[in-house]
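Help! Submission page says 'invalid entity' but I think these are all valid:
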Amino acid sequence: MTTTQTQQAPGAELGKARLRKEDERLITGQTNWTDNITLPGMLHIAFLRSPFAHARITSVDVSAARGAPGSSRPTPARTSPTSRAACPARGRSRPTS
Amino acid sequence: MAQITVTVDGVSYVDHVEPRTLLVHYLREGVGKTGTPIGCDTSNCGACTVLMDGASVKSCSVLAVQADGAQITTIEGMANGEWHPLQRAFHTEHALQCGYCTPGMIMAAADLLKENPHPSDQEIRDGLEGNLCRCTGYENIVRAVRRAAEAGASE
């Protein structure tokens, strides 16, 4: 096996430390982190988890949350189509076969 | 609601806040100073560090009403026409990766250098022990603070 060493041309980038280009916004507090973004009609989401580590959910009553000031759409996980797969009710996370 | 008068980065604000409002929430949502991030909400990480009358505080563990009458400096107020020596040093020494802890690191370091203009590396580490960097850039952060001290950041 033969290795070939190529002489670097003067001023080439290889082997040189480069200063980052993204630092200015990061060190002056100008970065638009996700938490900084506000959009018209934007809602915040909060997850209320069960206070019990091991229990069977027989029902979820969201009526109090539905009536709370500022509350938009309290939704039990089982009726939310998007969260159903990620939050299986009744132990469906285990393979059945 | 309580009325507070706070000077943030040289501008005076008079606002009504709920007594439970945290300083960091007031800065971000009341004043719009989103340069101060919330890292942990539990005073562990120091990302939200600001200067209150020159002393570093974790703004998630200060109530807005406690800042009544105070001068607050955030990361957004550090550059005065040109970058603060700490900001230059963080850039030069590659003392940040994602940059989320950087505002808190710089504000805590500013207080450290005011108290101790020429700290040893160990004193820098002790001074910044309340600030966490999850990119683990501590070595370069210490180098940056040392470089800023040599550049006269405390003046």
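Support: the input was valid. A stray whitespace character was the problem, and the output above is from the cleaned input. Chain B touches chain A through 24 residues (CB under 8 Å).
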